[in-house]
Every structure is written in structure tokens, then in C-alpha cells.
Amino acid sequence: MNTKKTKVMVISKTEPPKVNIKVKGKCIEQIEQFKYLGQLIITDARSDDEIKSMITITKSAFTKLSHILTSKRVGLLTRLRVMKCFVWSPFLYASDTWTLNKNTEKRTEAMEMWIYRRMQRISWKEKVTNKKVLESVVLQRPELLLTIQRRKMEYYGHLRRHDSIQKRILEGKIDGRRGRGRRRQTWLGNI
């Protein structure tokens, strides 16, 4: 085990305790967050910071392709397909593992509307409603959250069909009493 590359992280609802793990006499560094396979993992195990970073990456991807996505010479349906392929795909990476709350849903929808407004070159100063923007891109309602929900359902079905450690963790119960206060939204409850 390479002690220079190895890190320790404790996942806890409250302030994580300091741990002192030694390998070959060397103390391993304790961290509060790290990126693993492109996904941000934090000590409190929430998805909020991960979603914020993915929104930033998505807006950056849109900006890189803005000369195509905002061009009036390219048809709207073509621009929408390019946007879904090259702009949405970084955002949707590992989205089936997120636990969404009202705040993150609002952020996601706001990011989607930001993209549609930019594609149609509609300034926020023009005071065009979201409904009118959606009509201009031939949509009834924002569809990014629906895509995330569909992916989560597909992943849940995959977990339910296979007898694996993930299924046992998902369905498992912990003995003892639960902590005080309002329960946190769980991934399973989010489905």
C-alpha cells in the first residue's frame, strides 16, 4: 500500500471524528472530500456539492460549443440534439446516484432554462417567461429532471433484479434508535 497516495475519509451526519490510521508507521492523511471516477464524495454524503460542480462543468461545456448552439444557421432540432449529446452528458454522469431535494431540483431546472435561453438568444432583461422559452424550443416542460428520474428508476430496477451487496445495503436496516430531528432524504425515498 502506497501511504503517500492513500487517504482516509469518515462519512458522518455530524462533524466526522479524527482518525489516526497508521500503515508501516506512517500516519495516513484524513480528508473531507475527494473525486472518485469523476464523482465528488464528501464526508456528509450529500449530493448538493456534486450537483453544483456538475452545473459548472455543464455551463462550461455549453460555452465551448456556444458558436454552434446559438447559431441561427443551424436548425433548432439539430442544436437541441447537439446540446443533449455534448452538454447534458457531462451533467448526467452518475446522476442516477444523486439524492435530489427541492433546492437541487430548482438549480437543475434553472440551469436547463439558462441553456434554452442562451440557445434562443433570449436575454434575462427581455422578461420572457419560462413557459414562452419552452414553447420556443418546442417543449411542454423542462425534461432534464425527468431524464434524471428515469435513470434513477432504471438503476433501481437493476439493483432489485440482481442479488448483490448493493441490494443488501439498499434494503438493509440498522439496529438501534434513529437520531433526533428530521430525517434526511434518502436515495430510496427520492425514487
Helix segment tally: 9
Low-confidence stretches: none
Beta-strand content estimate: 5-15%
Shape: elongated
Average residue pLDDT: 88
Q: How widely separated are the two ends?
A: 39 Å
Order of helices and strands: EEEEEEHHHHHHHHH
- Strand order across the largest sheet: 1-4
Question: Using only CA atoms, what is the Rg?
Answer: 21 Å
Proportion of helical residues: 40-55%
Largest sheet, described in full? 2 strands, parallel
**Coarse structural class:** mainly alpha
DSSP summary, beta strand count = 6
Organism: Elysia marginata
GO molecular function: endonuclease activity
Protein name: Endonuclease-reverse transcriptase
Keywords: Endonuclease, Hydrolase, Nuclease
In words, what does this structure look like?
Keywords: Endonuclease, Hydrolase, Nuclease. By secondary structure, the chain is mostly helical. It is built from nine helices and six strands. Helix 1 packs parallel to helix 5 (102-119). The protein is elongated. The model has no long low-confidence stretch (mean pLDDT 88).
